[in-house]
Amino acid sequence: MNKSKSSSVFKTNFTKSVALPSLAIIIAISLFCVFFSKDTEQALNIVKEIIFKNLSWLYVLLVTVFVLFLITLAISKFGKIKLGADDSEPEYSFFSWIAMLFAAGMGIGLMYFGVGETMSHYATPANANLADNLRAKEAQLYTFFHWGFHAWSIYGVVGLSLAYFAYRHNLPLAIRSGFYPILKNRIHGRFGNIVDVFGLCSTFFGIATTLGFGVVQLSAGLVSLHLISESSFSYQIIIVLVVMIIAVLSAISGLGKGVKKLSELNIIMAVLLMLFILVFGPTIYILSTFTEGLGHYISHFISLTFNTYAYEQGSQEWFSKWTILYWAWWISWAPYVGLFIAKISKGRTIREFILAVLFIPAFFNFLWMTVFGSSAVWIDEHIAHGALSEFAKNPDTLLFNFFTYFPFTTFLNVLSILIICVFFITSADSGIFIMNGIASKGAVSSPKWQSVFWGILLSLLALSLLHSGGLASLQTMTLITALPFGIIMALLCYNLWKALVVDSEYSAKKYSHGSLNWNNNNWKEHLEKIVTVSKKKDIHKFLNQTVKKAFEELVVELAKNNIEAHINSFSTPQQAVELEIKYDQLRNFKYGVMAQKQTVSETLLNEKNTPDIDLEFIFQPVTYFGDHRKGYDIQYLSKDGIISDVLREYERFLNLSSEGDHDLIMKPNN
């Protein structure tokens, strides 16, 4: 009895070939950091310098590819392809979708770097010879660069790939699915496992880095409120344990809805905080720099995108410690954020997805960074007389020192700490969910002990890396794990493009020349049907007496050719009848007809020169197919006409099946 209960408690849905290698890497690094902290710090510094010196160009090239790839897709013919079946509709209203994308742009990072990044670039510019009157302008430019379209292009590549293959081709909502065009069914084997291992490790270290930022800023905030005496490692341990316990309890106890509400409230608090700084800060200066900053960013977009500072050796160190680390950080977060935006984007077109994902969160980031960053620069120049520039060397406390120049300082400190705490909790909670999903091939739910396990592991790694070298160690681990996943993302771009080319060709495939000559000369019957309004009973009669009889004749003739076909009838959710030919190596051929309800327009109801229409709704027999293409109305076809139409579709199916390029779409249903 006890043994059975114990085994039930510790059952797992981990995919061993993904979870075990990932955990081996993560746990080994964590233990090494705990017991050999100094050696770890030295080793990480050596690796970091090697990457900075030899591979910075690769990070720049990868991110440039992502930006150009998404822009190309948005303006190409592929932009109109839906993330789902052709007739699928978005699950969320446009406003709700926009609101959730807006929420995706928020996080601990904006709280930590809102003041810190602009002030750091202002105090220590990339170009040491920059004129004083240009320091603020260039500081804002590089802040926009790091938090703008490039970051969201990284997220967009993963999100688009996940959404496309999951919703349009019914593959698992997992990174491995994005490799189907080149791996085919091998995505379920070793190669797919390797992809998910890199995705899991990258996500884990990215989340650990973000939580590290939250820890050091929370401890600094508590010091500013005199709740703790110093921002020491001992207090950081307590903060991590308290916050992670709350996050894990949220993950395992069904409090997700409460946390969701708290998260929504947190976004409102963050916006109110931003508005407070805008109103009580140098408002005109902020708005002016926002407008000018957007123009400056757009005009320098191309040069910023491709710049590796190959001709400016004096700026190489700044470039590595800022831009390259940011690209690595965003890449490490790509599975996490990408999955979030994929989950909410079913039914959107590719063009709609890309434009919204690139512009909406980035625009909010620009506004946030301007309100906090430009305010800090103005205060430093006109009130603090350089004091904030000095604090820029310690970004952990900079935000709270910034608040001392505003009214209600204590209130602002408390509000900021609350915002950081909730972001901390929701990031950990969501991170646990995402890692469970990657480690179990996209499973929706997981045993509770797994959430506890991830929480302990995140806490252990964040604290061990903080102990062995602070945030620098966390950033270096992100830098290391992001590189292989960045290459995986480049391959995702290739696979997605390959799939979209096939998708476009498939949808545009026409009937063969011979089938176009098939016709039906019973025009009088057609005319009678055109002027007759179809009621529900008419469609019922049409399906049973015309469509079904046509299918029955086809079943008999197909059987004579040793092809077994079946007729399926349905009454819910819509009345339908379908002809199905089952295959082992191909998607089943289906030709179905369903009764589709259609609202009659008021204009047609009031029109005199039309058939006598007095119904609010009419019904039409509309086709549907096994490959989810959009169907069409066949109410004007006779029995023989329907047989001809089925044969057209069947000929098309066989032609497409013989072409190997269409394996993705012609694969078996399961």
From TrEMBL:
The chain crosses the membrane at residues 20-37, 57-75, 95-115, 144-167, 194-213, 233-255, 267-287, 324-342, 354-379, 399-425, 451-471, 477-497. It is a multi-pass membrane protein. This is Glycine betaine/proline betaine transporter BetS. It is found in: Cell membrane. Signal peptide: none annotated. It comes from the Bacteria. One of its GO terms (molecular function) is transmembrane transporter activity. GO terms for cellular component: plasma membrane. Keywords: Cell membrane, Membrane, Transmembrane, Transmembrane helix, Transport. NCBIfam families: bcct. InterPro entries: BCCT_transptr. Belongs to the BCCT transporter (TC 2.A.15) family.
